Amino acid sequence: MFRLTNTPIDAAALRATLENAAAGACVTFEGIVRNHNDGRAVLRLEYEAYAALANKEGEDIVRAAREKFAILGAVCEHRVGPLEIGGMAVWVGVSAAHRGAAFDACRHIINEVKQRVPIWKREFYADGTVEWVGCAGCADPSHDHSRS
Amino acid sequence: MNVSASPPPDTITVEYFAVFRAQAKRASEDLPFDGTSPAAIYDALRARHGFALERASVHVAINDTYASWDAALTPGDRLVFIPPVSGG
After folding, report:
1. Domain extent for B67
2. Which residue of B has its CA nearest to A31?
3. Is A49–B87 a contact, with Cβ atoms under 8 angstroms apart?
4. Tell me, what CATH number does B43's domain have?
5. Which end of chain B is more exposed for a tag (fewer CB within 10 A), N or C?
6. Which pTM value belongs to this model?
7. Could you tell me the mean pLDDT of each successive run of 10 residues in chain A, 148 residues long?
8. Which 3-state string (H, E, C) describes A88-141?
9. Which CATH number covers residue A104?
10. Contacts of A121 in chain B (CB under 8 A)
């Protein structure tokens, strides 16, 4: 299951959906808003999603992981909207009979989400500037965020 | 251009997210359908709105599915340009 939410992620509730008597392992990943990025002090941020495509891609990632790895269940929830430092941006959980597949699938899912789910981060910096991450200049190798 | 007020649509709708919405200063716009490719539409809108991103770093979705830049469009299609994603 993949889901976007504009309210705080309830990790315990998501974890409960993975309960399975056949599971010997449950690996979870929590993505947290940190106070710096690329050498700049970050005060807060916002996530925006292209929901129709994000849900489709997210579901596809979770479904593919269930086929690729020997796991029993997989869940991913991503926050949209404003978030403070320390807030949970994304949660991934995987249950499996054995820990190896659970670790591998959990890492695979978060990597895929970061690569292809259309969600964008807008950071508010301590110097008063605001920027969409993955910004125009990032396509240019000479671009340096720390410059401005 | 004389645009008919009655459906069916003879337009392509472009929806904007994130940095594109900020640079286009709008959430969407309708363009007359003229058979051009998503690539040509992006290049024209990039010139019009001053999008900073090269097309090589952008993806395109048609009707909520990732598509290729030379996909054939149909009147009524919804086009979304996807800047580099930064979720997670």
Report:
1. 11-82
2. B88
3. yes
4. 3.10.20.30
5. N
6. 0.89
7. 98 98 98 95 97 98 98 98 98 98 98 97 96 65 39
8. EEEEEEEEECCHHHHHHHHHHHHHHHHHHCCEEEEEEECCCCEEECCCHHHHCC
9. 3.90.1170.40
10. 86-87
